[in-house]
Specification:
- This protein is α+β, with helices and mostly antiparallel strands.
- The protein has 2 domains: about 140 residues, Rossmann fold, CATH 3.40.50.10330; about 200 residues, Tumour Suppressor Smad4 (Sandwich).
- The chain has 11 helices and 18 strands.
- Helix 4 links the parallel strand 3 and strand 4.
Length: about 375
């Protein structure tokens, strides 16, 4: 199907008319994202997929969480060979959940191709998939080559004090509670505030917003207002921590696009890495040692008087946080989206739960 100027209308055409069974490539994206700039990327991607004879059909994301079920319904027709997401972490998550839901309901399973457009792009770059409109043709070639890898998926549950489940969701990159989630929440509030101011909206975006929100939240930790205690049980072994500022549980290698906390961790090894930060010294050490282009040895850290981080990993992880009465709540996040705040969480690694299409030599970029 050839792209048109009206992408949303194109999606309502009869699915992959005239295309053999299991040959269609379903491109999932939001043409109104990034103040409409995503529409240009979608059109370019449709042309590139057509040239590669991957028979594209566009599927627009839907508001209020309706994308997942609608995508599963579309996949159950049975003519889709692969799904390709174009967008940020939210589009990746919705697309992946739609694939998983279709498989759970009918047994049909398709791989996920990646055309990242987000700020950090941890999932794509952890496998060597570049982001942005200029990378579309290269990413189409990766999709056409059809090399697949597994991705472990996280399931998180949040519990009330009495033990009742409050919420449950899937995640594909990271889950966390504390400073990083607080930065995310601050970023979202700032972004909402300037959403209707055209000049500020263009200047104050992406990493600039993260920088301001991060600085504001980090300064709070220096005076102890955002620290807490935690008991983290990893595969039955309990670890207790005081003075914690952040807990991040990682599935893919990259964090924030630039940091690798656990170089030996793999996205398909059945384990998640547990990163615990206790104060600004831990953050300083992680910033220096974990940056993907600035490797520093443990001896170098010792000279600087900074601790070397230990990063345990496991398949089943139970997190209990103990906060000061001054804390109304501790923010939580998954895959760059805010998650329900609670004091008790349980994370499970769903081994080899999603097929992703990757480069021939999948490694971090």
């Amino acid at each position: 199907m050839k792209p048109t100027g009206d992408l949303a209308s194109a999606a309502r055409v009869v699915p992959c008319a005239g295309v053999s069974r299991l040959r269609c490539s379903l491109l999932v994206g939001n043409p109104t994202a990034r103040t409409g700039k995503a529409a240009a990327a979608i059109s370019r991607a449709m042309v590139a997929l057509e040239r590669a004879r991957l028979y594209p059909e566009f599927f627009p994301t839907l508001p209020r969480g309706a994308t997942v079920a609608a995508l599963a319904d579309r996949l159950e027709i049975g003519d889709v060979a692969r799904v390709v997401y174009l967008g940020g972490d939210g589009t990746f998550a919705e697309t992946a959940k739609g694939i998983i839901l279709a498989r759970e309901r009918t047994g049909l399973d398709v791989p996920l191709g990646m055309m990242p457009m987000g700020t950090a792009n941890d999932q794509g770059r952890s496998f060597g998939v570049a982001a942005g409109i200029k990378a579309i043709e290269r990413n189409v070639q990766i999709i056409a080559d059809g090399i697949e890898s597994w991705l472990d998926v996280g399931r998180v549950q949040a519990f009330a004090e009495a033990g009742d489940e409050l919420a449950q969701d899937l995640w594909f990159d990271s889950w966390g509670v504390g400073l990083s989630a607080q930065i995310l929440a601050k970023r979202n509030r700032d972004r909402d505030l300037i959403a209707h101011v055209p000049l500020l909206r263009q200047i104050y975006r992406d990493k600039v917003i993260y920088l301001r929100a991060g600085l504001s939240s980090y300064l709070r930790t220096l005076v102890g207002r955002s620290r807490f205690a935690a008991a983290i049980t990893i595969d039955g072994v309990c670890h207790e921590y005081e003075g914690v500022t952040d807990i991040v549980i990682k599935g893919t290698a990259l964090f924030g696009g630039d940091w690798i906390f656990a170089p030996d961790g793999k996205p398909d090894d059945g384990r998640f890495e547990v990163v615990v930060m206790r104060g600004h010294a831990d953050w300083a050490a992680a910033t220096i040692t974990a940056h993907k282009r600035n490797p520093v040895t443990r001896d170098d850290l010792a000279v600087l008087g900074l601790p070397a981080a230990e990063v345990p990993s496991g398949r089943e992880i139970d997190v209990r946080v103990f906060r000061s009465p001054r804390h109304h709540r501790l923010y939580a996040q998954l895959d760059g989206e805010e998650f329900l705040a609670a004091d008790h969480y349980r994370i499970e690694n769903l081994f080899h739960h999603l097929r992703v299409i990757v480069p021939a030599d999948p490694r971090c970029i």
